[in-house]
């Protein structure tokens, strides 16, 4: 098989391949490293970190739905200080590009986290979570207001020279406006989509199956929605897109790239098949060879409508 | 670890509604300890999407077995597997029982399908242990005795053994044992474990409980199986910090 170039560029960030592991689905790297060789993966996005530790939501936090799952973890994380002290040392040597996801409840907190992490050489880029649906403060409130997304992007931009990726919510009327606001304020890329708000009830107890009542829907159930959002951004805004939503295999990756994604993130599938990225990379190589594609980046936005 | 090619050897219905699944899985069989679990993908499709966690019931040579009842679509599919079918399994996962101590009496407390992890535990006790199995269920048909030793049963309706729940049964027998040389090992529904934890702490007996939870990954990344810890500013995870906990360490 001839050599295929799987590398992709997201702004100034170069990844060895388009496969990234999504925030909240790989912890801080160490647990999943027992199942997969992280050095083969394009990029790893760590679990959202906030300035102070967050305990997260009480149980039950998850429930399975048709071809998907709802989660309301509530951004449980060790906090910025412990992240730098206890988690970064392991992440230093994984041989993959490390991207830190930051969640906050105020613009100031986003800026402070970014500034503090900016001096960590291991951290190559930031993903700004303006769209967590499961916490009452911050998150969704920011993600639903295009002016706030613009403001956060502007302030975080001023705090770092490293690439910034804004993670967008699908729970809005027009995702392209948010992508445009991120671009206008200097973001290098957007990632789309975060989870869709959903719920599930037990029909006998009449209670919600997760304590938070609503949660974020992920998994193959949301793939068509995610693809449509990626396509919408791709057709309207000139900014690199990282596609996320229900990707289970290499065919899904190709589909996202055709619809405009420069790279993709694997999320829920990591819970089911933690070594899937190796299978996906193999599949992408074979697909490129089969379709005479020498550079996988040529797939991005190659749709014919 | 992932054992993608576990080979089904048998699915046996040992009593109405209770199944034993035997899978040839050499790596898991080699590494498993009592109280650990496997997270099993019951089908190749996205239905069901997530793996399903099951306690390891027993290990014989290269064969790992699981005990289950039908609660949903996942277990329904498992009950219909045929010899030679391939199963994708993650395991062994989690922290199992600490059965290494100096105690003389091992009291097994099993509620319903909570009997599942005990055959493997019983097999691993040193020979000098005096093992007694307190087995509870709603009715006679719910009492699972598979590979348990020295069984005393309780049923809510009195159709077999002691009339009452298994914690009440234990209370009626506990005067025969001394907390200094006796350890309790329990598994069952949360209300039972909650009552038992409170009871064993009050009576001053060492007690370990095997808990269950809805779970996605089974190895600590999804954070979906959290449980409140007694002395912890973070939630504990059933999959990684458990599934077996000291009774005093968790608030169910």
Shape of chain A: globular
The CATH class designation of chain A is Alpha Beta
Low-confidence stretches of chain A: none
What composes the largest sheet of chain A? 8 strands, parallel, barrel
**Average pLDDT reading of chain A:** 94
* Assembly form of the protein: heterodimer
Order of helices and strands of chain A: EEEEEEHEHEHHEHEEEHEHEHH
User: In percent terms, what proportion of residues of chain A is strand?
Assistant: 15-25%
Largest sheet of chain B: 7 strands, antiparallel
Biggest interface and residues each: A-B, 35 and 30 residues
Give the helices and strands, then pairings.
The complex is a heterodimer of chains A (305) and B (252).
Chain A: E1 8-10, E2 13-15, E3 19-21, E4 43-45, E5 62-65, E6 68-71, H1 80-92, E7 97-102, H2 107-118, E8 123-129, H3 140-143, H4 146-159, E9 164-167, H5 175-184, E10 189-192, E11 196-198, E12 215-218, H6 223-236, E13 241-244, H7 250-258, E14 261-266, H8 269-272, H9 276-290
Parallel strand pairs in A: 3-4, 3-14, 4-7, 7-8, 8-9, 9-10, 10-13, 13-14
Antiparallel strand pairs in A: 1-2, 5-6, 6-12, 11-12
Helix pairs in contact in A: 2-4, 4-5, 5-6, 7-9
Chain B: E1 2-15, E2 18-24, H1 26-31, E3 37-41, E4 52-55, E5 58-60, E6 63-69, H2 73-79, E7 86-93, E8 105-111, H3 118-124, E9 130-137, E10 151-155, E11 162-163, H4 166-173, E12 182-187, H5 190-203, E13 206-210, E14 226-229, E15 236-237, E16 244-246, E17 250-251
Parallel strand pairs in B: 8-9, 8-12, 9-10, 10-11, 12-13
Antiparallel strand pairs in B: 1-2, 1-7, 2-6, 3-4, 3-7, 5-6, 13-16, 14-15, 14-17
